[in-house]
Amino acid sequence: MISLLILLTGSFIKMSGQNLLWTALANPDSLQVNAVGFSSGDQQVLSATNCHPAHIRLWNSSNGNLHWDYEVPNNLMCMMGAGISNDSKYLLAVEEMGNILVFDHSQAMPDSINLINMGTTYAFSMDISNHSQKVVVGGSGGQLQVYRIADGLQIFSISAHTSWVTAVQYSNNSSRIASGGNDNKIKIWDSTGMLIYTLNGHTDDITSLRFSESGDTLWSASRDNTLRMWNMLNGSLIQSLVVSNADIHAMDYHSSKKCLVTVSQDQWIRFIHPETFVRIDSFQQAHQTVPLSVSFSQSGSYLVTGTLNGLVTKYSLLNLTNVNENNLQSSMVHCIPNPSFGQFQISSSIDFKAYIVMDMQGRVIAQNDFPKDGQIDLSQLPKGGYTIKLSDNGGNQYLTKILLQ
Questions:
Q1: Fewer CB atoms inside 10 A, N or C side of the chain?
Q2: Residues 232, 175: contact at Cβ < 8 Å?
């Protein structure tokens, strides 16, 4: 449990590893915040809320002052997702009845320029491609759709899942799209809508998906309370972690900070190393409310959350990085080859004493003294991802991963 120091002046709360910078009300009726994000350069914070009426707002990132407030017309419903393109030209929001609101974000105050009707009964998720030209949206009837932002032209529409498409994500180079549904499945598509992989394993709705910078890894979060890591070279599951005993509402990833963040029904914000799945830090959402949405800033120095009671909260993460990595140094150990058919060499300058092999659920399935030649044979184990924890004579521990094929 992280110690808290609550200062009685104002609403400032100081916790281990983070600082609350400001809190603002995203909806005058305190309706829940379904999406938050940062603009390019971290100058603005975006929020989008439930209805009636829904509000899309922009905040000055440095001080939390309201910059722009768009009250959604009464013929439209709740905003389920929102984002700003990397070139800062567009602001988009997806509305729950199947409409995409497009705003010109290049001017001082965003101006509404298009309303794209998806032709679905509901819509739940969206993501803008990194080159800022396309948006992928997920809706009811299992529909996964891609549109050209500039003119609203539909590029493709496919039946991706059996019911609702609850999460979508572009890869960094926009060559792949990940979709997740309330059928508990994740599917990987190429840029034309051709199916590459179907990933099975979650037991409840998929809430968030994030690709690694290279696109070789995908992380998924679900209401089954687990965070999972997938190999995009072959579609296999690498690792699974039970994050909490409550729904994971959202997840985000920052590549240069090597950090995943999750927000859950139990009001906790948790930070996890993306390769080792070691917990880095955690703290409780300010003001004792449930966080529903979360986003890292582009720099990785800040975090913003949106809550059940309409709050947008910005935190500083300047003291968060590398918290638990001094005793778990994965970068100093390598398995060669990796993937392996069972036999591999541990490559490191460290004099190890013993090793433990854990499966994707964190269960210890093998342990032994470390062999003098560094050769380990796991060919008796089923195919899949495993974590190897090694210890040296000084009691230090090191983690590495191996994929058996």
A1: N
A2: no
Backbone Cα Rg of the chain: 22
Classify residue 276: in a domain, yes or no: yes
Which residue type sits at 190? D
Domain count, the chain: 2
CA nearest neighbour of 390 among 362, 370, 375: 370
3-state secondary structure of 142: helix
Structure tokens at 253: 């990833």
Residue whose structure tokens are 């794209």: 116
Instruction: Provide the b/e sequence for 201-234 (b: ≥16 CB within 10 Å).
Output: bbeebbbbbbbbeebebbbbbbbbbbbbbbbbee
Q: Kindly report, residue by residue over 290-302, the tens digit of the pLDDT.
A: 999 999 999 999 9
Same domain for 180 and 268?
Answer: yes
CA dist 93 and 199 (Å) reads 28
Residues 74 and 160 occupy one common structural domain: yes
Q: Please enumerate in sequence order all residues whose Cβ is within 8 A of that of 395, keeping only pairs 6 or more positions apart, or say none.
A: none
Return the number of other C-beta atoms located less than 10 Å from residue 155's C-beta.
15
Cα separation of 48 and 124, whole Å?
13
Higher pLDDT, 318 or 24: 24
Sequence-separated (6 or more) residues with CB below 8 Å from residue 43: 60, 61, 62
Give the distance, in angstroms, between the CA of residue 22 and the centroid of all CA atoms in the same chain.
22
pLDDT mean over 50-73: 97
Can you give the CATH number for the domain in which 301 is found? 2.130.10.10
209, part of any domain: yes
Question: Model-level pTM?
Answer: 0.77
Structural domain harbouring 367 = 330-404
DSSP 176-205: EEEEEETTS-EEEEETTS-EEEEE----S-
Token pair 């829904």 in the structure block, residue: 54
Q: What is the separation, in whole angstroms, between the first and last Cα of the chain?
A: 39
CATH code for the domain in which residue 374 is found? 2.60.40.3080
